[in-house]
Amino acid sequence: MTTTTAVTLSGVTKEYGTVQAVAGVDLTIRSGEVVALLGPNGAGKSTTIEMLLGLVRPDQGSVQVFGTSAVDAIAAGQVGVMLQSGGIIEDAKVGELLTLVAGLHRKPLPVKEALDRAGIADLADRKMKGLSGGQQQRVRFAMAIIPQPDLIVLDEPTTGMDVESRRDFWASMHAETARGRTVLFATHYLEEADAYADRVVLMRDGKVTADGTAAQIKASVSGRTIRATVPGADLATLAALPGVRTVETRGDVVLLQCADSDDTLRYLLSNTSAHDIEVTSADLEDAVLAISAEQETLA
Amino acid sequence: MNLDYLLFDIKRTLRNRRVLIFSILMPLILFVIFGMSLKQTDTEAGISAIAYVMVSMAMFGSLSAAMSSGGVIAMERDGGWNRTLRLTPLKPQAYVVTKVILSLLLAIPPLVVVFAAGMIFGHVHLSAGQWASVALVSWLGALPFAGLGLVIGYVAKPDSVQPITGLTTMLIAAFGGLWLPVESMPSLMKHIAEFTPAYWTGLSSRSALSQSGLDMHALLVVLGWTVVLGAIGLRRFRADTARA
Q1: Which chain A residues are Cβ-neighbours of B3 within 8 angstroms?
Q2: pLDDT, tens digit, 9 for 90 and up, residues B145-165
Q3: What does the pLDDT look like over A200-238, one tens digit per residue?
Q4: A100–B11: do the CB atoms touch at under 8 Å?
Q5: Distances (CA, A) of B213 to A285, B46, B50, B58
Q6: Which of A15, A140, B53, B109 is most buried, judging by how many CB atoms fall within 10 Å of its CB?
Q7: Within-domain flag for A174
Q8: Among partner residues B2, B76, B83, which is closest to A104 by beta-carbon distance?
Q9: Looking at the partner chain, which of A55, A100, A102 has a beta carbon nearest the beta carbon of B244?
Q10: Are A158 and A10 in a shared domain?
Protein backbone atom coordinates (compact mmCIF):
# COMPACT_ATOMS: atom_id res chain seq x y z
CA MET A 1 0.00 0.00 0.00
CA THR A 2 1.73 3.15 -1.19
CA THR A 3 -1.06 5.57 -0.41
CA THR A 4 -2.63 6.15 2.95
CA THR A 5 -5.78 7.77 1.61
CA ALA A 6 -8.48 5.44 0.35
CA VAL A 7 -11.23 7.88 -0.51
CA THR A 8 -11.39 11.64 -0.96
CA LEU A 9 -14.65 13.45 -1.62
CA SER A 10 -14.17 17.19 -2.10
CA GLY A 11 -17.21 19.42 -2.10
CA VAL A 12 -19.44 16.97 -3.92
CA THR A 13 -23.03 17.99 -4.58
CA LYS A 14 -25.91 16.31 -6.36
CA GLU A 15 -29.31 17.70 -7.19
CA TYR A 16 -32.24 15.64 -8.43
CA GLY A 17 -34.72 18.10 -9.86
CA THR A 18 -35.44 20.45 -6.99
CA VAL A 19 -34.16 18.05 -4.34
CA GLN A 20 -30.65 18.69 -3.10
CA ALA A 21 -29.69 15.08 -2.35
CA VAL A 22 -26.11 15.92 -1.43
CA ALA A 23 -25.29 19.51 -0.51
CA GLY A 24 -21.51 19.67 -0.39
CA VAL A 25 -19.74 16.76 1.27
CA ASP A 26 -16.04 16.68 2.11
CA LEU A 27 -14.85 13.33 3.34
CA THR A 28 -11.45 11.70 3.52
CA ILE A 29 -11.15 8.06 4.47
CA ARG A 30 -7.73 6.72 5.34
CA SER A 31 -6.66 3.20 4.49
CA GLY A 32 -7.65 0.71 7.13
CA GLU A 33 -10.46 2.78 8.60
CA VAL A 34 -13.88 1.30 9.23
CA VAL A 35 -16.31 4.14 8.68
CA ALA A 36 -20.04 4.21 9.24
CA LEU A 37 -22.11 6.65 7.25
CA LEU A 38 -25.01 7.17 9.57
CA GLY A 39 -28.21 9.02 8.95
CA PRO A 40 -31.94 8.74 8.43
CA ASN A 41 -33.49 7.82 5.09
CA GLY A 42 -33.12 10.68 2.66
CA ALA A 43 -29.98 12.02 4.35
CA GLY A 44 -27.99 11.53 1.14
CA LYS A 45 -26.04 8.44 2.18
CA SER A 46 -26.86 6.38 -0.90
CA THR A 47 -26.24 9.24 -3.32
CA THR A 48 -22.90 9.93 -1.63
CA ILE A 49 -21.96 6.27 -2.04
CA GLU A 50 -23.11 6.25 -5.66
CA MET A 51 -20.91 9.25 -6.39
CA LEU A 52 -18.00 7.65 -4.57
CA LEU A 53 -18.40 4.58 -6.80
CA GLY A 54 -18.75 6.52 -10.02
CA LEU A 55 -22.33 5.33 -10.57
CA VAL A 56 -23.55 8.91 -10.31
CA ARG A 57 -21.64 11.94 -11.50
CA PRO A 58 -21.52 14.76 -8.95
CA ASP A 59 -22.85 18.14 -10.09
CA GLN A 60 -19.86 19.73 -8.41
CA GLY A 61 -16.79 18.57 -6.57
CA SER A 62 -14.45 15.68 -7.15
CA VAL A 63 -14.03 12.07 -6.10
CA GLN A 64 -10.80 10.16 -5.77
CA VAL A 65 -10.46 6.52 -4.84
CA PHE A 66 -6.92 5.35 -4.11
CA GLY A 67 -5.64 8.44 -5.88
CA THR A 68 -7.47 7.74 -9.10
CA SER A 69 -11.01 7.75 -10.46
CA ALA A 70 -13.60 5.38 -9.08
CA VAL A 71 -13.88 3.66 -12.45
CA ASP A 72 -10.13 2.98 -12.59
CA ALA A 73 -10.01 1.79 -8.99
CA ILE A 74 -12.90 -0.57 -9.72
CA ALA A 75 -11.25 -1.78 -12.93
CA ALA A 76 -8.15 -2.55 -10.88
CA GLY A 77 -10.23 -4.67 -8.51
CA GLN A 78 -9.49 -2.38 -5.54
CA VAL A 79 -13.14 -1.87 -4.62
CA GLY A 80 -15.72 -4.43 -3.52
CA VAL A 81 -19.29 -3.26 -3.33
CA MET A 82 -22.45 -4.52 -1.74
CA LEU A 83 -25.47 -2.52 -2.76
CA GLN A 84 -28.73 -2.41 -0.91
CA SER A 85 -30.99 -4.41 -3.19
CA GLY A 86 -31.29 -5.71 -6.72
CA GLY A 87 -28.16 -6.12 -8.73
CA ILE A 88 -28.31 -9.88 -8.93
CA ILE A 89 -29.67 -12.35 -11.42
CA GLU A 90 -32.69 -14.14 -10.06
CA ASP A 91 -32.49 -17.25 -12.23
CA ALA A 92 -28.78 -17.81 -11.64
CA LYS A 93 -27.40 -20.20 -9.04
CA VAL A 94 -25.29 -18.78 -6.24
CA GLY A 95 -22.20 -20.70 -7.38
CA GLU A 96 -22.63 -19.57 -11.00
CA LEU A 97 -22.99 -15.95 -9.99
CA LEU A 98 -19.84 -16.04 -7.88
CA THR A 99 -17.90 -17.91 -10.58
CA LEU A 100 -18.91 -15.20 -13.02
CA VAL A 101 -17.84 -12.37 -10.72
CA ALA A 102 -14.55 -14.16 -10.05
CA GLY A 103 -14.06 -14.45 -13.81
CA LEU A 104 -14.36 -10.69 -14.18
CA HIS A 105 -11.54 -9.94 -11.75
CA ARG A 106 -7.81 -10.32 -12.11
CA LYS A 107 -6.88 -11.79 -8.75
CA PRO A 108 -10.13 -13.19 -7.40
CA LEU A 109 -10.66 -15.04 -4.19
CA PRO A 110 -11.43 -18.68 -5.03
CA VAL A 111 -15.21 -19.10 -5.17
CA LYS A 112 -15.17 -21.78 -2.50
CA GLU A 113 -13.29 -19.48 -0.16
CA ALA A 114 -15.77 -16.65 -0.80
CA LEU A 115 -18.68 -19.01 -0.09
CA ASP A 116 -17.05 -20.12 3.16
CA ARG A 117 -16.24 -16.61 4.33
CA ALA A 118 -19.80 -15.48 3.64
CA GLY A 119 -21.11 -18.58 5.42
CA ILE A 120 -23.09 -19.80 2.42
CA ALA A 121 -21.17 -22.89 1.29
CA ASP A 122 -24.41 -24.87 1.51
CA LEU A 123 -26.22 -22.49 -0.87
CA ALA A 124 -23.89 -22.83 -3.89
CA ASP A 125 -26.40 -24.87 -5.91
CA ARG A 126 -29.45 -22.84 -4.98
CA LYS A 127 -31.04 -20.32 -7.29
CA MET A 128 -30.99 -16.72 -6.13
CA LYS A 129 -34.74 -16.31 -6.32
CA GLY A 130 -35.35 -19.06 -3.77
CA LEU A 131 -33.22 -17.39 -1.10
CA SER A 132 -34.36 -15.30 1.84
CA GLY A 133 -33.44 -11.63 2.00
CA GLY A 134 -30.69 -12.32 4.50
CA GLN A 135 -29.25 -15.14 2.39
CA GLN A 136 -29.24 -12.91 -0.68
CA GLN A 137 -27.38 -10.27 1.30
CA ARG A 138 -24.74 -12.87 2.14
CA VAL A 139 -24.36 -13.67 -1.56
CA ARG A 140 -23.91 -9.95 -2.22
CA PHE A 141 -21.32 -9.90 0.53
CA ALA A 142 -19.49 -12.83 -1.11
CA MET A 143 -19.58 -10.91 -4.42
CA ALA A 144 -18.08 -7.89 -2.66
CA ILE A 145 -15.10 -9.77 -1.23
CA ILE A 146 -14.28 -11.80 -4.36
CA PRO A 147 -12.08 -9.06 -5.88
CA GLN A 148 -9.96 -9.16 -2.68
CA PRO A 149 -10.53 -5.42 -2.57
CA ASP A 150 -8.66 -2.84 -0.52
CA LEU A 151 -11.91 -0.99 0.05
CA ILE A 152 -15.31 -2.52 0.73
CA VAL A 153 -18.36 -0.31 0.36
CA LEU A 154 -21.66 -1.51 1.76
CA ASP A 155 -24.95 0.32 1.45
CA GLU A 156 -27.20 -0.67 4.36
CA PRO A 157 -25.91 -4.23 4.31
CA THR A 158 -28.16 -5.65 7.00
CA THR A 159 -31.48 -4.34 5.72
CA GLY A 160 -34.01 -7.14 5.89
CA MET A 161 -31.91 -9.35 8.16
CA ASP A 162 -33.13 -10.64 11.48
CA VAL A 163 -31.11 -10.03 14.62
CA GLU A 164 -29.19 -13.28 14.41
CA SER A 165 -28.32 -12.85 10.71
CA ARG A 166 -27.11 -9.35 11.48
CA ARG A 167 -24.82 -10.62 14.19
CA ASP A 168 -23.47 -13.36 11.89
CA PHE A 169 -23.04 -10.87 9.09
CA TRP A 170 -20.98 -8.50 11.21
CA ALA A 171 -18.88 -11.40 12.42
CA SER A 172 -18.03 -12.19 8.76
CA MET A 173 -17.43 -8.51 8.16
CA HIS A 174 -15.14 -8.29 11.16
CA ALA A 175 -12.96 -11.03 9.66
CA GLU A 176 -12.54 -8.83 6.57
CA THR A 177 -11.66 -5.70 8.51
CA ALA A 178 -9.14 -7.76 10.44
CA ARG A 179 -7.43 -8.32 7.07
CA GLY A 180 -6.76 -4.59 6.99
CA ARG A 181 -9.40 -3.67 4.47
CA THR A 182 -10.88 -0.21 4.48
CA VAL A 183 -14.63 -0.33 4.99
CA LEU A 184 -17.33 2.23 4.42
CA PHE A 185 -20.85 1.24 5.32
CA ALA A 186 -24.05 3.19 5.29
CA THR A 187 -26.57 2.39 7.96
CA HIS A 188 -29.44 3.84 9.85
CA TYR A 189 -28.89 1.44 12.73
CA LEU A 190 -27.06 3.36 15.44
CA GLU A 191 -25.93 0.27 17.27
CA GLU A 192 -24.19 -0.98 14.13
CA ALA A 193 -22.29 2.27 13.75
CA ASP A 194 -21.46 2.24 17.43
CA ALA A 195 -20.35 -1.39 17.53
CA TYR A 196 -18.49 -1.86 14.26
CA ALA A 197 -17.11 1.47 13.08
CA ASP A 198 -13.88 3.18 14.12
CA ARG A 199 -15.37 6.37 12.88
CA VAL A 200 -18.92 7.61 12.47
CA VAL A 201 -19.85 10.17 9.84
CA LEU A 202 -23.25 11.58 10.53
CA MET A 203 -25.26 12.83 7.56
CA ARG A 204 -28.41 14.83 7.43
CA ASP A 205 -30.07 16.75 4.61
CA GLY A 206 -27.18 16.04 2.29
CA LYS A 207 -24.48 17.34 4.63
CA VAL A 208 -22.03 15.87 7.10
CA THR A 209 -23.16 17.06 10.50
CA ALA A 210 -20.67 15.22 12.68
CA ASP A 211 -17.54 13.19 12.11
CA GLY A 212 -15.51 11.32 14.68
CA THR A 213 -15.35 8.17 16.74
CA ALA A 214 -18.60 7.09 18.32
CA ALA A 215 -17.11 8.16 21.65
CA GLN A 216 -16.22 11.61 20.32
CA ILE A 217 -19.69 12.11 18.95
CA LYS A 218 -21.22 11.09 22.24
CA ALA A 219 -18.84 13.42 24.08
CA SER A 220 -19.63 16.31 21.75
CA VAL A 221 -23.05 16.21 23.24
CA SER A 222 -21.93 16.86 26.75
CA GLY A 223 -25.44 16.92 28.03
CA ARG A 224 -27.71 14.49 29.76
CA THR A 225 -31.23 13.32 29.32
CA ILE A 226 -33.71 13.94 32.09
CA ARG A 227 -36.73 11.74 32.21
CA ALA A 228 -39.42 12.71 34.67
CA THR A 229 -43.12 12.39 35.26
CA VAL A 230 -44.48 15.94 35.30
CA PRO A 231 -48.28 16.11 35.50
CA GLY A 232 -49.61 19.14 33.63
CA ALA A 233 -46.16 20.18 32.45
CA ASP A 234 -45.86 23.50 30.68
CA LEU A 235 -43.79 22.43 27.71
CA ALA A 236 -43.13 25.89 26.38
CA THR A 237 -41.64 26.98 29.69
CA LEU A 238 -39.53 23.82 29.91
CA ALA A 239 -38.25 24.25 26.39
CA ALA A 240 -37.31 27.83 27.13
CA LEU A 241 -35.10 26.91 30.11
CA PRO A 242 -31.47 27.87 29.41
CA GLY A 243 -30.00 24.36 29.62
CA VAL A 244 -32.66 22.54 27.61
CA ARG A 245 -32.12 21.51 24.00
CA THR A 246 -35.28 19.57 23.20
CA VAL A 247 -38.44 18.52 24.95
CA GLU A 248 -40.48 15.42 24.23
CA THR A 249 -43.49 14.04 26.03
CA ARG A 250 -44.97 10.58 26.33
CA GLY A 251 -48.14 11.11 28.29
CA ASP A 252 -47.11 12.66 31.61
CA VAL A 253 -43.51 11.62 31.07
CA VAL A 254 -41.24 14.40 29.87
CA LEU A 255 -37.90 13.80 28.18
CA LEU A 256 -35.52 16.71 28.29
CA GLN A 257 -32.25 16.77 26.36
CA CYS A 258 -30.10 19.10 28.36
CA ALA A 259 -26.77 20.77 27.85
CA ASP A 260 -26.75 21.54 31.56
CA SER A 261 -28.97 19.15 33.45
CA ASP A 262 -28.18 20.49 36.92
CA ASP A 263 -29.96 23.79 36.40
CA THR A 264 -32.88 22.05 34.79
CA LEU A 265 -33.13 19.61 37.70
CA ARG A 266 -33.15 22.46 40.20
CA TYR A 267 -35.93 24.12 38.28
CA LEU A 268 -37.97 20.92 38.00
CA LEU A 269 -37.68 20.17 41.72
CA SER A 270 -38.47 23.64 42.94
CA ASN A 271 -41.08 24.79 40.43
CA THR A 272 -42.96 21.69 39.30
CA SER A 273 -44.42 18.55 40.77
CA ALA A 274 -41.93 16.41 38.85
CA HIS A 275 -41.28 12.94 40.27
CA ASP A 276 -39.66 9.64 39.22
CA ILE A 277 -36.75 11.63 37.85
CA GLU A 278 -33.97 9.80 35.99
CA VAL A 279 -30.85 11.42 34.61
CA THR A 280 -28.81 9.55 32.00
CA SER A 281 -25.79 10.55 29.97
CA ALA A 282 -26.16 10.58 26.22
CA ASP A 283 -25.72 7.44 24.20
CA LEU A 284 -25.03 7.64 20.50
CA GLU A 285 -28.70 7.85 19.69
CA ASP A 286 -29.17 10.87 21.92
CA ALA A 287 -26.08 12.42 20.41
CA VAL A 288 -27.46 11.93 16.93
CA LEU A 289 -30.78 13.41 17.95
CA ALA A 290 -29.14 16.35 19.65
CA ILE A 291 -26.93 17.08 16.64
CA SER A 292 -29.92 16.82 14.35
CA ALA A 293 -31.93 19.14 16.56
CA GLU A 294 -29.10 21.68 16.52
CA GLN A 295 -29.11 21.53 12.74
CA GLU A 296 -32.80 22.24 12.68
CA THR A 297 -32.40 25.19 15.00
CA LEU A 298 -29.68 26.60 12.79
CA ALA A 299 -31.81 26.12 9.70
CA MET B 1 -16.11 -10.17 -24.68
CA ASN B 2 -15.63 -12.24 -21.59
CA LEU B 3 -15.66 -16.03 -21.79
CA ASP B 4 -16.85 -16.54 -18.21
CA TYR B 5 -19.75 -14.26 -18.91
CA LEU B 6 -20.64 -16.10 -22.10
CA LEU B 7 -20.57 -19.47 -20.30
CA PHE B 8 -22.70 -18.01 -17.51
CA ASP B 9 -25.29 -16.81 -20.03
CA ILE B 10 -25.25 -20.09 -21.96
CA LYS B 11 -25.90 -22.09 -18.79
CA ARG B 12 -28.82 -19.85 -17.88
CA THR B 13 -30.28 -20.07 -21.37
CA LEU B 14 -30.02 -23.85 -21.45
CA ARG B 15 -31.84 -24.00 -18.14
CA ASN B 16 -34.54 -21.61 -19.31
CA ARG B 17 -35.78 -23.94 -22.02
CA ARG B 18 -38.68 -21.76 -23.15
CA VAL B 19 -36.57 -19.79 -25.60
CA LEU B 20 -34.91 -22.87 -27.04
CA ILE B 21 -38.13 -24.84 -27.34
CA PHE B 22 -40.01 -21.94 -28.88
CA SER B 23 -37.28 -21.18 -31.39
CA ILE B 24 -36.88 -24.85 -32.37
CA LEU B 25 -40.38 -26.34 -32.05
CA MET B 26 -42.29 -23.53 -33.76
CA PRO B 27 -40.33 -23.62 -37.03
CA LEU B 28 -40.19 -27.40 -36.91
CA ILE B 29 -43.96 -27.70 -36.59
CA LEU B 30 -44.50 -25.09 -39.30
CA PHE B 31 -42.09 -26.91 -41.56
CA VAL B 32 -43.93 -30.17 -41.00
CA ILE B 33 -47.32 -28.55 -41.67
CA PHE B 34 -46.32 -26.58 -44.77
CA GLY B 35 -43.49 -28.75 -46.08
CA MET B 36 -45.17 -32.12 -45.82
CA SER B 37 -48.14 -30.98 -47.90
CA LEU B 38 -45.81 -30.38 -50.82
CA LYS B 39 -44.77 -32.90 -53.47
CA GLN B 40 -41.12 -33.62 -54.18
CA THR B 41 -41.61 -32.27 -57.69
CA ASP B 42 -43.08 -28.93 -56.60
CA THR B 43 -40.83 -25.96 -57.17
CA GLU B 44 -40.86 -22.39 -55.95
CA ALA B 45 -38.61 -19.62 -57.28
CA GLY B 46 -36.46 -22.13 -59.12
CA ILE B 47 -35.71 -24.46 -56.23
CA SER B 48 -37.52 -27.42 -54.67
CA ALA B 49 -40.56 -26.11 -52.80
CA ILE B 50 -39.77 -28.28 -49.80
CA ALA B 51 -36.24 -26.85 -49.62
CA TYR B 52 -37.76 -23.36 -49.95
CA VAL B 53 -40.02 -23.92 -46.95
CA MET B 54 -37.20 -25.60 -45.02
CA VAL B 55 -34.92 -22.58 -45.42
CA SER B 56 -37.72 -20.14 -44.57
CA MET B 57 -38.69 -21.96 -41.39
CA ALA B 58 -35.08 -22.43 -40.31
CA MET B 59 -34.56 -18.68 -40.78
CA PHE B 60 -37.71 -17.92 -38.82
CA GLY B 61 -36.44 -20.04 -35.92
CA SER B 62 -32.98 -18.56 -35.95
CA LEU B 63 -34.17 -14.96 -36.11
CA SER B 64 -36.57 -15.42 -33.21
CA ALA B 65 -33.77 -17.07 -31.22
CA ALA B 66 -31.36 -14.26 -32.10
CA MET B 67 -33.85 -11.66 -30.91
CA SER B 68 -34.50 -13.38 -27.60
CA SER B 69 -31.42 -11.86 -25.97
CA GLY B 70 -33.32 -8.56 -26.02
CA GLY B 71 -35.58 -9.94 -23.30
CA VAL B 72 -32.58 -10.89 -21.21
CA ILE B 73 -31.04 -7.43 -21.59
CA ALA B 74 -34.29 -5.70 -20.60
CA MET B 75 -34.64 -7.89 -17.49
CA GLU B 76 -31.03 -7.36 -16.48
CA ARG B 77 -31.28 -3.60 -16.91
CA ASP B 78 -34.39 -3.49 -14.80
CA GLY B 79 -33.00 -5.66 -12.00
CA GLY B 80 -29.99 -3.42 -11.49
CA TRP B 81 -27.65 -6.09 -12.80
CA ASN B 82 -26.00 -3.53 -15.07
CA ARG B 83 -25.15 -1.47 -12.00
CA THR B 84 -23.52 -4.51 -10.48
CA LEU B 85 -21.51 -5.03 -13.65
CA ARG B 86 -20.41 -1.41 -13.63
CA LEU B 87 -18.86 -2.16 -10.24
CA THR B 88 -16.66 -4.84 -11.80
CA PRO B 89 -13.78 -4.49 -14.27
CA LEU B 90 -16.04 -5.79 -17.08
CA LYS B 91 -16.19 -3.20 -19.86
CA PRO B 92 -19.73 -2.26 -20.91
CA GLN B 93 -18.83 -3.03 -24.53
CA ALA B 94 -17.86 -6.56 -23.49
CA TYR B 95 -21.37 -7.03 -22.12
CA VAL B 96 -22.92 -6.07 -25.47
CA VAL B 97 -20.51 -8.21 -27.45
CA THR B 98 -21.27 -11.18 -25.21
CA LYS B 99 -25.00 -10.73 -25.77
CA VAL B 100 -24.52 -10.56 -29.54
CA ILE B 101 -22.41 -13.72 -29.52
CA LEU B 102 -25.07 -15.41 -27.39
CA SER B 103 -27.69 -14.37 -29.95
CA LEU B 104 -25.64 -15.88 -32.75
CA LEU B 105 -25.13 -19.11 -30.79
CA LEU B 106 -28.85 -19.37 -30.06
CA ALA B 107 -29.50 -18.94 -33.77
CA ILE B 108 -27.70 -22.21 -34.54
CA PRO B 109 -29.97 -24.93 -33.02
CA PRO B 110 -33.11 -23.96 -35.03
CA LEU B 111 -31.08 -24.05 -38.24
CA VAL B 112 -29.61 -27.45 -37.42
CA VAL B 113 -32.91 -28.99 -36.37
CA VAL B 114 -35.00 -27.71 -39.29
CA PHE B 115 -32.30 -28.59 -41.82
CA ALA B 116 -32.08 -32.08 -40.30
CA ALA B 117 -35.86 -32.41 -40.54
CA GLY B 118 -35.64 -31.32 -44.18
CA MET B 119 -32.99 -33.91 -44.88
CA ILE B 120 -34.66 -36.77 -43.04
CA PHE B 121 -38.40 -36.15 -43.50
CA GLY B 122 -38.47 -33.78 -46.47
CA HIS B 123 -35.88 -35.76 -48.47
CA VAL B 124 -34.09 -32.56 -49.38
CA HIS B 125 -30.96 -33.64 -51.20
CA LEU B 126 -28.13 -31.14 -51.31
CA SER B 127 -24.42 -31.49 -51.84
CA ALA B 128 -22.21 -31.03 -48.78
CA GLY B 129 -21.11 -27.71 -50.26
CA GLN B 130 -24.70 -26.54 -50.63
CA TRP B 131 -25.56 -27.54 -47.06
CA ALA B 132 -22.51 -25.68 -45.77
CA SER B 133 -23.29 -22.65 -47.88
CA VAL B 134 -26.99 -22.45 -46.96
CA ALA B 135 -26.16 -22.98 -43.29
CA LEU B 136 -23.53 -20.24 -43.27
CA VAL B 137 -25.63 -17.72 -45.17
CA SER B 138 -28.67 -18.47 -42.98
CA TRP B 139 -26.53 -18.00 -39.88
CA LEU B 140 -25.25 -14.65 -41.19
CA GLY B 141 -28.91 -13.81 -41.74
CA ALA B 142 -29.37 -13.86 -37.96
CA LEU B 143 -26.98 -10.92 -37.56
CA PRO B 144 -29.46 -8.09 -38.16
CA PHE B 145 -31.83 -9.74 -35.68
CA ALA B 146 -29.14 -9.91 -33.03
CA GLY B 147 -28.93 -6.14 -33.58
CA LEU B 148 -32.71 -5.79 -33.39
CA GLY B 149 -32.71 -7.77 -30.14
CA LEU B 150 -30.20 -5.28 -28.78
CA VAL B 151 -32.42 -2.35 -29.76
CA ILE B 152 -35.49 -3.91 -28.16
CA GLY B 153 -33.49 -4.85 -25.05
CA TYR B 154 -32.47 -1.23 -24.49
CA VAL B 155 -35.83 0.29 -25.39
CA ALA B 156 -38.40 -2.05 -23.86
CA LYS B 157 -39.39 -2.49 -20.23
CA PRO B 158 -39.24 -6.02 -18.81
CA ASP B 159 -43.01 -6.46 -18.78
CA SER B 160 -43.39 -5.30 -22.38
CA VAL B 161 -40.32 -6.94 -23.86
CA GLN B 162 -41.90 -10.38 -24.42
CA PRO B 163 -44.93 -9.13 -26.36
CA ILE B 164 -42.81 -6.63 -28.30
CA THR B 165 -40.31 -9.31 -29.29
CA GLY B 166 -43.05 -11.82 -30.14
CA LEU B 167 -45.02 -9.36 -32.23
CA THR B 168 -41.94 -8.05 -34.04
CA THR B 169 -40.82 -11.59 -34.83
CA MET B 170 -44.21 -12.53 -36.24
CA LEU B 171 -44.63 -9.35 -38.26
CA ILE B 172 -41.15 -9.65 -39.71
CA ALA B 173 -41.57 -13.33 -40.51
CA ALA B 174 -45.03 -12.88 -42.02
CA PHE B 175 -44.35 -9.71 -44.01
CA GLY B 176 -40.82 -10.77 -44.90
CA GLY B 177 -42.17 -13.85 -46.67
CA LEU B 178 -40.84 -16.50 -44.31
CA TRP B 179 -44.26 -18.04 -43.64
CA LEU B 180 -45.75 -17.62 -47.07
CA PRO B 181 -43.51 -17.37 -50.14
CA VAL B 182 -43.14 -13.80 -51.39
CA GLU B 183 -43.66 -15.19 -54.89
CA SER B 184 -47.25 -16.07 -54.01
CA MET B 185 -48.00 -12.65 -52.47
CA PRO B 186 -49.92 -9.83 -54.16
CA SER B 187 -47.59 -7.15 -55.56
CA LEU B 188 -48.26 -4.63 -52.75
CA MET B 189 -47.19 -7.26 -50.22
CA LYS B 190 -44.06 -7.91 -52.23
CA HIS B 191 -43.13 -4.26 -51.99
CA ILE B 192 -43.74 -4.28 -48.26
CA ALA B 193 -41.63 -7.42 -47.94
CA GLU B 194 -38.68 -5.62 -49.45
CA PHE B 195 -38.64 -3.26 -46.46
CA THR B 196 -38.12 -6.08 -43.96
CA PRO B 197 -34.70 -7.56 -43.22
CA ALA B 198 -36.26 -11.03 -43.16
CA TYR B 199 -37.07 -10.82 -46.88
CA TRP B 200 -33.39 -10.30 -47.69
CA THR B 201 -32.15 -12.98 -45.32
CA GLY B 202 -34.62 -15.44 -46.89
CA LEU B 203 -33.58 -14.39 -50.38
CA SER B 204 -29.87 -14.73 -49.69
CA SER B 205 -30.26 -18.07 -47.90
CA ARG B 206 -32.35 -19.59 -50.69
CA SER B 207 -29.92 -18.30 -53.28
CA ALA B 208 -27.37 -20.68 -51.79
CA LEU B 209 -29.51 -23.48 -53.22
CA SER B 210 -30.18 -22.01 -56.66
CA GLN B 211 -28.28 -22.65 -59.86
CA SER B 212 -27.43 -18.99 -60.31
CA GLY B 213 -25.33 -18.91 -57.15
CA LEU B 214 -25.33 -16.60 -54.13
CA ASP B 215 -27.37 -13.43 -54.40
CA MET B 216 -24.67 -10.96 -53.37
CA HIS B 217 -27.09 -8.03 -53.56
CA ALA B 218 -29.38 -9.68 -51.01
CA LEU B 219 -26.42 -10.52 -48.81
CA LEU B 220 -25.24 -6.91 -48.89
CA VAL B 221 -28.70 -5.71 -47.86
CA VAL B 222 -28.56 -8.15 -44.93
CA LEU B 223 -25.21 -6.73 -43.88
CA GLY B 224 -26.61 -3.21 -44.34
CA TRP B 225 -29.48 -4.03 -41.99
CA THR B 226 -26.93 -5.42 -39.54
CA VAL B 227 -24.98 -2.16 -39.59
CA VAL B 228 -28.12 -0.02 -39.19
CA LEU B 229 -29.74 -2.07 -36.40
CA GLY B 230 -26.39 -2.63 -34.71
CA ALA B 231 -25.69 1.11 -34.73
CA ILE B 232 -29.11 1.91 -33.26
CA GLY B 233 -28.59 -0.77 -30.63
CA LEU B 234 -25.18 0.63 -29.71
CA ARG B 235 -26.58 4.16 -29.47
CA ARG B 236 -29.28 2.97 -27.11
CA PHE B 237 -26.69 1.04 -25.14
CA ARG B 238 -24.43 4.11 -24.84
CA ALA B 239 -27.34 6.29 -23.74
CA ASP B 240 -28.28 3.68 -21.17
CA THR B 241 -24.75 3.32 -19.84
CA ALA B 242 -24.16 7.06 -19.66
CA ARG B 243 -27.34 7.63 -17.68
CA ALA B 244 -26.14 8.34 -14.22
Answers
A1: 103
A2: 999 999 999 999 888 998 999
A3: 999 988 999 889 988 777 766 666 788 899 888 888 888
A4: no
A5: 81, 12, 19, 20
A6: B53
A7: yes
A8: B2
A9: A55
A10: yes
